[in-house]
Amino acid sequence: MAFIDHVQITLASGRGGKGAVHFQKLRRSPRGGPDGGNGGKGGDIILSVKPDLKDLSHLVKKRLYKAKDGYPGEGRKKKGKKGKNLVLSVPKGTICYDSKGLLLKELKEKDWCFLKGGRGGKGNSFFKKASLQAPQIAQSGSPSVKKEVILQLKWVSDVCLVGFRGSGKTSFALELSQQKSKIYPSSYPRLFSIKPLSFSEPLLFVDLPGLSPSTRSFLKQAERAKIITFVVSLMDKDPFCSYQKLRKELLAYDQKKGSYLAQKPSFLLLTGRDHFVYEEKGKLF
């Protein structure tokens, strides 16, 4: 399945339930006092952060996501049931914008109630007063609120591996993470959790696909990395030239997007067939 880090969808809360027009039915008074109940509240739209999710591909199936409407009130002053909330799972690092690109929320850990459901309407029992003993009126529930949003994923990571195809980025990440997976070429970013020491917190490594005109857009996954690691193969004809090309790619991206990738702390990782050489930027050349 394709890696999706950008979706534009419409979210709608549930409408409030309608209040009931109802009267007591007694033996001596077939039409007694009003006892219509209030309508139930509409469902909320909640964005829930799920660390296990890696992208937004599960949200491309539909354009409209709507919570359930509240149920209408009933006789004997019974309140209608609340509409079911709609909980949309998103990966950690998802950023929510409105349709004009204005930042609304950065989703890190906690769930966020994006839209509140509509209030339930009042039943006719609410409107009874001395001058109106048998009200025939009830409120409709508050309408649904609908908003178009843009969700964009930018992984929050410790290290981002940047290199051309065949440089050994994925092999290096698999070696550190001690995964025994087979290595397949990928056109999409990958996320690895690496625990350097048994007592330390795990580090998150982003392995970007080999840089090319078709994969430059994935450099956005490096914007929130603490460190950029350039990976260059010693099997290249001119490793230093490859390194310079990688830095130029980041500079070009910064100029286009207004980011600061080229100014982040960076390292150079030289890879070969059977070994890895790790050097701090500026000390090798």
Q: Would you spell out the secondary-structure blueprint of this structure?
A:
Layout: E1 6-12, E2 45-49, E3 64-66, E4 86-90, E5 94-98, E6 103-107, E7 112-115, E8 146-153, E9 157-163, H1 169-177, E10 190-194, E11 203-207, E12 225-233, H2 239-257, E13 266-271, E14 276-280
Parallel strand pairs: 1-3, 2-4, 9-11, 9-12, 12-13
Antiparallel strand pairs: 1-8, 2-7, 5-6, 5-8, 10-11, 13-14
In total, the number of strands is: 14
CATH class of the largest domain: Mainly Beta
User: Averaging pLDDT over every residue, what do you get?
Assistant: 87
**Side-by-side strand order of the widest sheet:** 10-11-9-12-13-14
CATH architectural label of the largest domain: Distorted Sandwich
Distance between the termini: 40 Å
SSE class = mainly beta
* Helix and strand sequence: EEEEEEEEEHEEEHEE
Distinct helical segment count: 2
Helix percentage range: under 10%
CATH topological fold name of the largest domain: Spo0b-associated Gtp-binding Protein, Chain: A
- Kindly report the name of the CATH homologous superfamily of the largest domain: GTP1/OBG domain
Uncertain segments:
274-285
Tell me the Rg in angstroms.
28 Å
Supply the number of structural domains. 2
Could you say which overall geometry the principal axes of the C-alpha atoms support?
rod-shaped
Largest sheet: 6 strands, mixed
Content of β-strand: 25-35%
